[in-house]
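Reopening this ticket.

The earlier resolution said the output was attached, but the attachment link was broken on my side. Pasting everything inline this time so it's all in one place.
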Amino acid sequence: MKNEDLTKIKHVGASRMGLLNASGITTIKQLYNTAIEDIARIKTMGMFSAKLIKDAVTEYYEQLKEASEKAEKKTRKKKDKKKVKGKKKTASKKKKAKIKKNKN
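Inline output:
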């Protein structure tokens, strides 16, 4: 598994990242899934730091989820606009064909 830069998470600097990596936590997902008690047991962390880190990684994941949902919604809107444009063109072509037919 590839090591990630855990310093993206608030309250995790280079030294805490080193401690987390030494404890087998090398990705943000692993950190997110690790129990607060397990983080607190890591040398020099303690419950206070563990809570700060756990809250920060949870917030990080929520922001990622929110950004992902916004991007998905934006993509859906674009697709819907394309569908509507396609339908409008078809409708106007039908109208033109009707007018042309009526003129003949």
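Reporter confirms the inline version is readable. The first helix runs from residue 14 to 22. The two ends are 72 Å apart (CA to CA).
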